[in-house]
Design a protein that fits this description.
Length: 483
């Protein structure tokens, strides 16, 4: 059972117990006092208890108490059994019988008799009440008073018992309080066992992450909210671990980039320096020799310019500052100058170039400068994989069914290794290729930025870049721009 459902049930039980407590308190404060005997009820019970004595006095006449010994014994027995008192008074105030005193002093019926119910302060308490006596004969004449003192215990014994009913609210209150005590204890224990301890158990894993140890898995077997917390915490640990690995790989790639650039810049600089010093020392006997040396210097300078441009674009990409501003323009006048320049450059490198016979003139959103960088990069890569006599083909095709314009750069060179294909668009990834130089082939390690930047530029245009390659048969790159 998850903690939320468990807590909801306890909350309902707590609410019911609190309601019971309130009901019991209301019962004891409002309904309880009403269970006490009302004065009219007490008077009725005294009448029931004293009715035999009053009946005897009214039938036998009160004056007979002065001479009739059986009546006096009957009154004495009643007084002893009930532990009550009785006074019989004539209308003129003559006291003819007193169970507590044998004197026959006259009393004042107006002030010394209790015509309304009175309870004494004595211990045990007595109820005092006077009843009038009438002749049971035909005259119904008033013959005197009977003043009774009935102990409360005798009256309570004669009345129906209500003690069990009185204890009901106390029993309910006790049970409700015990239930609340159990709920508070169980909730506290559940919170401590299922919430506080598991959350505290995450502390060592968090400290391990702070120390850089991302291999300790936080696991929780219960399928509840705490289990979800542990699962999310472990996902966070895994994400931090992956980010740490990526950061380490990025840092390593930066180091490799600096190392590769240092190597790639060092070789052209050394070559340029050596050829310039040879020219200065007069090793070249004539102008054709000097021009040959200058061609080598020019080739190495171009190589350094490409490296610096790649590095600049890489830095701008990291800062998200590569400016790509595509505008609506027609493809033919935009792409034709680019292909003319690229075709001339390819042919100067000793490779045949097939330029597009017709360029579809359609409206596209394009940044001509950035698209030229992409095409130039693809042509440069194609030259790395080709040799004299190979062919580089440039083409433009319109696909109306997909509403796109495709720019194709293909070659008949050595192709891309299958193990390199999944990674060629990743930054810093590089493979060993043969770089064409002036008059010779030399092995070059690229810095792995060109295709990554090409992909970024094409995505900024809302397009795509894809390729197909077979070793020793060539490679084809396809740039797709939406119409």
């Amino acid at each position: 059972m998850d903690w939320k459902t468990w807590y909801a049930r306890r909350l309902w039980a707590a609410g019911l117990s609190i309601s019971t407590v309130i009901l019991s308190v209301v019962w004891l404060t409002l309904i309880g006092p009403s269970n006490q005997l009302a004065p009219s009820t007490i008077v009725k019970q005294i009448r029931v208890l004293t009715n035999p004595i009053i009946h005897t006095l009214e039938n036998e006449h009160a004056e007979l108490l002065l001479t009739d010994a059986p009546i006096r014994r009957q009154l004495t027995i009643w007084s002893q059994e009930t532990r009550g008192g009785l006074k019989v008074v004539l209308p003129d105030g003559t006291l003819i019988y007193d169970s507590e005193n044998s004197s026959k002093r006259p009393i004042n019926p107006r002030f010394e008799l209790d015509y309304t119910l009175r309870i004494s302060d004595s211990e045990p308490p007595h109820y005092h009440l006077a009843f009038p006596l009438r002749d049971a004969g035909g005259t119904k004449a008033f013959v005197g008073y009977a003043q009774f003192a009935v102990p409360a215990s005798a009256l309570a014994a004669a009345m129906p018992s209500s003690d069990s009913f009185i204890y009901v609210p106390w029993i309910m209150l006790s049970l409700a309080l015990l239930t609340l005590l159990y709920l508070f204890f169980s909730i506290g224990r559940r919170v401590q066992h299922d919430l506080v301890q598991p959350v505290a158990g995450l502390k060592p894993y968090a400290e391990a992450i702070l120390r850089g140890d991302y291999e300790q898995r936080a696991e929780w077997t219960s399928n509840n909210e705490v289990g979800e917390l542990y699962a999310v915490f472990d996902l966070m640990r895994e994400e931090i671990r992956n980010l740490h690995i990526q950061q380490a790989a990025h840092s390593q790639s930066h180091k490799e980039l600096i190392s590769n650039l240092s190597h790639d810049l060092k070789t052209p600089l050394a070559t340029i320096k050596a050829y310039i010093e040879a020219i200065r020392e007069g090793i070249c006997p004539d102008l054709p020799s000097v021009m040959t040396y200058l061609e080598v210097v020019h080739a190495n300078t171009s190589k350094m310019a490409v490296l610096v441009d790649d590095l600049l674009l890489h830095a701008l990409r990291d800062l998200e500052q590569i400016a790509v501003h595509p505008i609506e323009q027609y493809s033919a006048p935009t792409l034709e100058p680019i292909f003319n320049v690229m075709g001339h450059y390819i042919r100067t490198m000793g490779v045949r170039c097939e330029e597009p016979a017709v360029i579809p003139n359609v409206l596209v959103r394009i940044d001509a400068v950035r698209i030229e960088q992409v095409i130039a990069n693809l042509v440069t890569n194609a030259l790395k994989h080709t040799k004299t006599g190979d062919t580089i083909r440039l083409a433009v095709e319109e696909h109306s069914e997909t509403s796109c314009l495709q720019i194709i750069v293909s070659d008949t060179g050595s192709g891309i290794s299958p193990r390199d294909m999944p990674f060629i668009f990743e930054r810093y990834y590089q493979g060993n290729v043969l770089q064409r130089t002036a008059g010779q082939l030399a092995e070059r390690h690229g810095v792995g930025l060109g295709l990554s930047i090409c992909k970024y530029i094409m995505e900024a245009h809302g397009g795509t870049i894809s390729f197909h390659s077979q070793q020793q048969q060539g490679t084809t790159f396809c740039l797709t721009l939406p119409l």
